[in-house]
Specification:
The protein has helices at 61-68, 76-153, and strands at residues 14-16, 22-24, 30-31, 35-37, 44-46. By secondary structure, the chain is mainly α. The strands form 2 sheets. Strands 1-2-3 form a 3-stranded antiparallel beta sheet, with no helix packed on it. The radius of gyration is 52 Å and the shape is rod-shaped.
Length: 154
């Protein structure tokens, strides 16, 4: 006997009647099959049916939940994240402004230190030039004096 055989007479002439049970057309024996009751209209449907034969309601629990919550609706966590987005954006902009001000202050101090270093370098160069000038002037003076002494003696 297979699932399509009548348990009373082994006939293969089986049909589903209006109540959703199996009925042997040969001997009239009726028996229940696994069936699903539609949550919307109460109709009995074959156990393997995915939707109600009468109203089209999804019979699988997962399908029913998905049909009540369409895929185009946002998950809770996404709605929450989007509702917090403006506040997060404002805080990030504020933090970004603070970082920018800190970087500007660091750059200002760096440029100031660079100017001071350049000024110190110029002062050292002036001192070196002044010292070199006086040394050269002293050497020229010594040469002139030595030339005069040699000229006057000779």
């Amino acid at each position: 006997m297979t699932l399509t055989d009548c348990p009373a007479c082994d006939s293969e002439d089986i049909a589903i009647n209006e109540q959703g049970s199996l009925e042997c057309l040969q001997c009239g024996h009726k028996w229940e099959i696994s069936s699903t009751i539609c949550p919307r209209c109460g109709s009995r449907n074959p156990g393997d049916a995915e939707t109600c034969v009468r109203c089209g309601e999804a019979l699988d629990v997962v399908d029913r939940l998905l049909s009540k919550h369409p895929s185009n609706s946002e998950p809770y966590f996404l709605r929450e994240a989007r509702s917090r987005a403006p506040d997060l954006k404002q805080r990030e902009e504020s933090a970004s402004q603070q970082r920018l001000e800190t970087l500007k202050e660091i750059d200002r101090r760096r440029l100031e230190a660079l100017r001071e270093a350049q000024n110190l370098q110029r002062q050292k160069e002036r001192q070196t030039l002044t010292t070199t000038f006086w040394i050269l002037a002293a050497m020229v003076l010594i040469i002139v004096v030595a030339t005069l002494v040699i000229t006057l003696r000779g």
